[in-house]
Structure prediction request, 398 residues.
Amino acid sequence: MARFRTRFIRRDGRRRAATLEAHDLASLGSQVESQFQGYVVEARRLEATAASRGRRRLSSSLLLAALDSLELMLVSGVRINSALRTLSLCAPRGTARLVWTEVVRQLEETGSFSDALRPFPRIFDDSMIGLVAAHEAAGRLPEGIRHVRTYVAQMRSIRRESLRAVAYPALVLVVGLAASGVLCVFTLPRFAKMLHDIGVKRTNRVTAFFFALSDFVVRHPLAAAAVVALPFAAAWVARRRPFRPACDRLLLRLPVVRGAIEALAMARICVTYRALSEAGIRVVEALEACAAVAGNAVYARGLASVVATVRDNAGVGAGFERARVFAPEVVLAVKSGEGSLPEVFGRLAEYYATEAKHRVALALGLLEPVMLIGVLIWVFGVALAVVLPVVEVVNEIH
Prediction:
């Protein structure tokens, strides 16, 4: 549906204005009459800008449901524009309805479904658009929608493994920082005041350290907040384009993390190549799309090297070998299966999709004890800081 800024007059003579969603001016008039008991005197369509379309996102569950419905309608013989109009009518209010309404409008203007999807890069990436364009040109759009749906489901599974890898450390970090803040702001200052009131002037080094830390947090809250925000700021900076390659190289040097990152990146690459090659996309274009979705700058640069090698009339296997980034088993599989690359990447996709789960579980299994030891050291230090002064006071009394 389109959005309209409308002015209308109610039956009691009062003028009102509202922003409403409707397919056209006729349905807008019916909506105003039924909802506000009035009639439209002025209506202006609110056009979505290219920037606003580019920022829109859609949850993977809503996208999968929409693709399922769209495929069923196309298989049943419904025309693509009618199917998309039905989809926009049935979509929930909000981003989903606005996206499909805009796709219908773009389709009717350009006559191409793939071109209608391009204004939404955060929902439909280049790989998905390439799949749709290839099947649209071959007159097999329902099959293309099915392939896109399968591709989205596979990438969703890989993305969940990535989120699973960072969820536990992030949760422990947030909870630890919150607990430390409560200790430094409320508990330790009151305990220090209690010791001062009973005449304790000298404390052990452990207690003195925690009291100094608490005093710093209380006296300099902005500086303490900056220190707390430092890990989150570092994570944000690491995701920026200028710093992403250096961060990705650093992560690939960590022993256990390297395996998980490699499996996740190769799963994305192999799934994307298989989907695009089965749709008839050329090798170079498929490899470029794989580089865009690799999720790691090192592997993206390696694929760019493979593309350059292929353009120099060398084989894909030779390109993977010259890149010096990919695992030996990947190079061997690609070189030996040069004549049937879709099948090779299909088997590699299945292998790395399973391997990603195992490697992420292994990384988390090794990370949990390390984080647990760090938490125990912190808790033990706080306990000593509280208990030792009490013991010293009791000894002095005796």
Q: What stands out?
A: The two ends are 82 Å apart (CA to CA). The beta strands are 2-10, 15-22, 38-46. The mean pLDDT is 83. The CA atoms of residues 41 and 160 lie 50 Å apart.
